[in-house]
Design a protein that fits this description.
The structure holds two protein chains of two kinds.
Chain A lengths: L9 H25 L4 H16 L3 E3 L3 E3 L4 H8 L1 H19 L7 H26 L4 H29 L5 H33 L17 H6 L1
Antiparallel strand pairs in A: 1-2
Chain B lengths: L1 H25 L9 H8 L4 H4 L19 E5 L6 E5 L1 H26 L4 H8 L6
Antiparallel strand pairs in B: 1-2
The chains are: A mainly alpha, B mainly alpha.
Chain lengths: 226, 131
């Protein structure tokens, strides 16, 4: 879903760029307090994993491929602000290092995938989680549903940007984008649930939004709790 | 506290190994079909808007996820002409460089952003010894 140069007009590029810069700026500010001994290595790991996973295009119907975005994965693991920094950094490196996504569309790409696909999606996840039973299965179900939704929302935002730029009318771009991303989103949900499930099984304390129990009792703490 | 810190490091390195394996081994076999947006642009006739635009940034060291210079002759499916295509090794190396590179950049950025002394505060507030 990386928009290349040439699809967006100046107004859309600037407007999305301003919002994206504001969100990333606030993320950088929040990072000062949120980064600790656990989240520094996790942030690096998330960036590496999302970059690698985004290279793995999987085939979907009709000569089309899709790839993982990772916004909800990093939001669930790190929270919305550190998560948005991870996605922003991945997009910046892809744009400058690998010619993936236009530099004039970088703001729009960060807006779609970090602001909508990560920060907004985090708050939808937060709301859904509050409505569901407080257990691991419901947590993973919410993760999967919001992962799918995040891809739909990001692709919908992309369609709106194309329409406002005069590249493709909304009545054409929106159904086409939502249609193909409804399938790609299923891949997003499967990968996100799989990875969050593995981290929950191995180190639940590293899933920042999983706050249903105290961090796993270890060593001396385990004896106290008995 | 040392043991705990070490175990986070082990988890991180194990995770990095998985990411590197994905980028190095699986990525050369990833689908090369156009992605969702590209396909929509193709079908709805606005792909040329991008093709006719000169990219603003042309200094990407590894354009299109293929290390430059590693090509093999292949036949273009549409035109039937012989073209130089990046080899699987070019993609694998791009994946390796990108994954390890972004891991180091992100770690460095996180260390720069982290509040000075924040870690020590966190340790003392939990009642554990400062190193």
């Amino acid at each position: 879903m990386h928009i290349p140069d040439g699809f967006l007009n100046t107004g859309v590029s600037v407007a999305t760029g301003v919002v994206a810069a504001g969100a990333i700026g606030y993320g950088l500010y929040k990072a000062r307090d949120e980064l600790d001994e656990k989240s520094v290595p996790m942030l690096a790991l998330c960036a590496a994993f999302v970059f690698a996973a985004q290279m793995l295009n999987f085939p979907v119907a009709g000569g089309t491929s899709g790839h993982f975005l990772g916004g909800v994965l990093v939001a669930v693991l790190l929270g919305p602000w550190l998560g948005s920094l991870v996605i922003g950094l991945v997009l910046l490196v892809q744009c400058l290092g690998f010619a993936d996504g236009g530099i004039t569309a970088l703001g729009a790409n960060v807006f779609n995938m970090a602001v909508i696909g990560t920060i907004l999606s985090y708050y939808i996840f937060y709301g859904l989680k509050a409505l569901l039973p407080k257990n691991r299965t419901a947590f993973l179900a919410a993760t999967g549903v919001v992962a799918w939704l995040s891809v739909m929302l990001a692709s919908g935002a992309c369609a709106v940007e194309l329409a406002v730029s005069g590249t493709s009318p909304l009545s054409v771009a929106l159904p086409a984008m939502l249609g193909v991303h409804a399938i790609i989103g299923v891949g997003e949900a499967i990968i996100t649930v799989l990875v969050v499930g593995v981290v929950l099984a191995v180190r639940p304390d590293l899933v920042r939004t999983y706050d249903y129990q105290a961090p796993i009792p270890r060593f001396e703490e385990a004896e106290v709790s008995q | 506290m040392e043991a705990r810190k070490k175990s986070i490091l082990i988890f991180t390195l194990a995770g990095l190994a998985v990411a590197v394996a994905l980028a190095l081994i699986i990525s050369p076999w990833a689908s090369s079909s156009p992605d969702g947006l590209e396909k929509v642009a193709e079908d709805k006739g606005f792909l040329e808007a991008a093709e006719e635009t000169e990219p603003v940034w042309e200094s990407s060291p590894i354009p299109d996820y293929a290390v430059p210079g590693l090509t093999a002759e292949a036949v273009d499916e549409e035109t039937g002409e012989a073209v130089d295509e990046p080899t699987k090794l070019a993609t694998a190396l791009a994946g390796l460089i990108g994954t390890v590179g972004i891991f180091l950049i992100a770690w460095g950025l996180a260390l720069v952003l982290k509040k000075k002394g924040g870690e020590t505060e966190a340790l003392t507030s939990r009642g554990t010894a400062i190193e």
